[in-house]
Amino acid sequence: MRLLVTGGAGFIGSNFVHHVIEHTDHTVTVLDALTYAGNRASLAGLPADRVELVVGNILDAALVDDLIAEHDAVVHYAAESHNDNSLHDPRPFLDTNIVGTYTLIEAARRHGTRFHHISTDEVYGDLELDDPARFTESTPYNPSSPYSSTKAGSDLLVRAWVRSFGLQATISNCSNNYGPYQHVEKFIPRQITNVLTGERPKLYGAGLNVRDWIHADDHSSAVLTILQSGVIGETYLIGADGEKDNKSVVERILTLCGQPSDAYDHVVDRPGHDLRYAIDSTKLRTELGWLPRYSDFDGGLAATIEWYRNNEAWWRPQKAATEARYTAQGQ
Ligand code: NAD
Ligand code: DAU
After folding, report:
1. Mean pLDDT of 287-304
2. Which terminus of the chain has fewer Cβ atoms in its 10 Å neighbourhood, N or C?
């Protein structure tokens, strides 16, 4: 297959491209605007005869139409992805996440092209810490932040285009990813690179919030499974039973880096901070036979720390500006 991967120079998109090249014989065109979050270095070393980077915007309808006409399937990762940024400047989230998705699905329906929409568990809002429930495909949408509300909006557009226009689409909603190539603004890489640069990790509020961690490579294998065997019109939740509170994750990073586990600071909390996310991925596992490979969070975290230790040239250029932004926000 000829795959068009939007946002393929970002964190999860680039992990997907690496995964596809290793595990299939598909060719990949990456369409990426190389915003502050995109990095062509994340695609370094991939075979030039199978991977092409087109620097362009998913809001560019003519470019999108031309590219979709030449491909068998679209996997749509491109987004503004950071909750904290969405609280300070929501506009790019509306443009890319909603109008960008609209631009892509209009072209995909014109050409009858298979479309897979990447989304997040945050569309479901949050759960109480002591609630035994987890999100399923039938949990009602209840997003909290500008980011998650624009992702919810994009999901609803895709669903409507399936029903009204017969768009050949599937949707997946995944939990929090970790692994290589993640921007240093995000929780785990921020704390790892803080330790590596002699800064103390920063925990929002009391740090009791729970996230359901999955390795980015497991997210990629799930998306490939859905692309190959998913039923058109269906939504699949992706998760790897990785619930951890933020405080435990920071303590684990410090310990794995040989520091005292309490060598972190509490900083001002995120407004509207979702308490807990948890995914029930039974549908994906039973209907499509997918299973995660990284069941050992500690091992995956240690490998991720090692990756940041060995790839300082990849993250160093973004670190100072990212921390300056956080400092201005009191975080
Ligand atoms: P990211 O911010 O690391 O990467 C986003 C990529 O999209 C960047 O390369 C950026 O340059 C590109 N991009 C942004 N706006 C664009 C535009 N208008 N046109 C073309 N390219 C554009 O994000 P990520 O963490 O890799 O997330 C990728 C997708 O996965 C998003 O849709 C996000 O909602 C979803 N998701 C993320 C997580 C997570 O834990 N990070 C979990 C579930 C779902
Ligand atoms: O659940 C999936 C979502 O996971 C994706 O849709 C988003 O794109 C992705 O960014 C992520 O959202 P979160 O807001 O959960 O991720 P973030 O890395 O920003 O924060 C994870 C948790 O850590 C959250 O509870 C806030 C907290 N945090 C974050 C930062 C940056 C801290 O305590 N300190 C920090 O410095």
Report:
1. 96
2. N
